[in-house]
């Protein structure tokens, strides 16, 4: 129930307002002076306060600031028996939601309280969303106990408090964007925009337009001015993913932004100034790109003032289980599934896999597993065939007599049939053989 506090020294007014507001569905608290009103605000944290201007131990206008310090999201409506413009102006300056005269404005008080309550609830929800976003993108959201990932997090935390460019290196799927968001959230610009752009997702012309914007008439189809992503990120952070894919011409414009804080929009003659923190990422060896004249050496040195290498999943294999269990929990909630157990063979298969796609590949495999599993336990059969291939030793056993070609073929076909849930057409597709051939093999091996 939405809480509301009335601070007024007249008992009859407090009782009348309380009864009226309780009928409207509010949970109402009362106080008769500044001291008890402030104490009550600390205890009940009301969303709206109705406060008299003239109180026995002080001025209600002066109380606004004290209540705001205790309850920053609370909206305060001032009440007075005598309309006073000066008090009204000062109340608004001190942060009051509005100012109302007793008696004259009785018909306005309920709608006014309703609007104040809506604003307070919106502020509360916004604060909750900001906290959720902060938690989602904080360093605490980066899972892992390996030394490699802990070292990377420690470096990122140190550089977050500065404003210098950061270059994140590592294979695809190692979490470079997650790190960039964590650096932003922990940094000086956390309350400003975070804009991400994949430099490999656009052609040279489109990327230039996306990053720097254009003026109307700059090219065919440019019917109006367009802000670029650098302008959108002004005073915030821009994340340039796959920076190694950026065309040589655009690299010069990027270097100018870093050095001067300004750039020219396409078709413009006046430079646009921005104040942006740049975090770049690449899975390429930029030194090799420099040697082959595909990346500017001067830009590299400006971007790589602070480098952080993100380890591949192969380098931090001890983190596979904790990541897998986190993804299982996430997708179980998303898909409304209950997973009570994970078989040791399933986890062992995850540890044995190479994970060339790193965390992103692991995430996709877990999501797929939860979609195909038939009960509340994840088992080997819920894994994709390519991961199951790595379990050949466990499937064929340790006995060398199981290593002849026919035995291996028989076991492999049986495994694929289990994976396909008995669907022979699907099994034949996965085995890349004809359906007639599969039926013959099934009969031959007595499957």
Word description of this protein:
The chain is α/β, with parallel strands linked by helices. The protein has four domains: 3-133, Response regulator (Rossmann fold, 3-Layer(aba) Sandwich), CATH 3.40.50.2300; 144-311, P-loop containing nucleotide triphosphate hydrolases (Rossmann fold, 3-Layer(aba) Sandwich); 313-377, Orthogonal Bundle (Helicase, Ruva Protein, domain 3); 397-447, Arc Repressor Mutant, subunit A (Orthogonal Bundle), CATH 1.10.10. The chain has 20 helices and 18 strands. The chain has helices at 11-23, 34-44, 60-70, 85-93, 106-136, 147-160, 176-185, 204-212, 229-232, 248-260, 286-291, 297-303, 320-334, 344-352, 358-372, 385-388, 392-396, 405-419, 424-431, 435-445, and strands at residues 3-7, 27-31, 48-52, 54-55, 58-59, 75-80, 98-101, 166-169, 194-198, 213-214, 226-227, 237-241, 262-263, 272-273, 277-282, 306-309, 341-342, 377-378. A five-stranded parallel beta sheet has the order 2-1-3-6-7, sandwiched between helices. A five-stranded parallel beta sheet has the order 9-12-15-8-16. The longest helix is centred in the N-terminal third of the chain and has 31 residues, at 106-136. The N and C termini lie far apart (64 Å). Residues 393-402 have low confidence and may be disordered.
